Amino acid sequence: xxxxxxxILITGGTGSFGKALSAHLLKTYKPKKIIxxxxxxFLQFEMSKEEIYKKNAEVMRxxxxxxxxxxxxxxxxxxxxxxxxxxxxxxxxxxxxxPDEFVKTNxxxxxxVIDVCIAANVKKVVALSTDKAAAPINLYGATKLCSDKxxxxxxxxxxxxxISFSVxxxxxxxxSRGSVVPFFLKNKNKSFLPITDKxxxxxxxxxxxxxxxxxxxxxxxxGKEIFVPKIPSYNIVDIAKAINPKAKFKxxx
Length: 253
What we know:
The structure is a single chain. By secondary structure, the protein is α/β, with parallel strands linked by helices. It has ten helices and twelve strands. The strands form three sheets. It has a seven-stranded parallel sheet with strand order 3-2-1-4-5-6-10, sandwiched between helices. It has a three-stranded mixed sheet with strand order 7-9-11. Helix 1 (16-28) links the parallel strand 1 (7-11) and strand 2 (33-38). It is globular, with a radius of gyration of 19 Å. The N and C termini lie far apart (46 Å).
């Protein structure tokens, strides 16, 4: 399997992962079309002006839409071969105060993606998940666990259609937007760094590793799998000390 002359749609495609995956596909293969499906018109505009996407303007398509909007997904999914579902609401504290919004995007939005992919005869669908979906203790993790269950069971009702659904579940993408490393870097000159628990550990993966792993999973998937890479973990205090050895810590939450 390769991506030459294929149409690939990435939901949440203006995020760190979507941009890295798009760049990798453009450098390594000759896709027919890459569709960036996301809600943020400004991020789409900024992305379209980056050199690699400008050079491949005939391949790139920027489609404003929300996974909550079934009809909009239908319009975007025309002649799509592969879908990488990266769109999600992800901030743990925000989820606790806005649970209905996370349900609408992470669960109902996931089901919309599944249903539209089946109707559009997409060949392969990979949904990105998180380590927080394993034995979840917060709402964000619970919504992603529900999403994972939807994708791994979707094959049960596709009938004779040749379509496969799988999940890729990994940890923090190192340095990605909203993750702990840029947060600590932003606050490194303050007298303390806020953490939730000194015993907390996080699994971490680089952006390149994440892209390579998803590409590999797309190539080998049969359907119904949850792919989990073997990746290192770190203690939250260790990463904070690496960024500011003199910082004190303040427990929040």
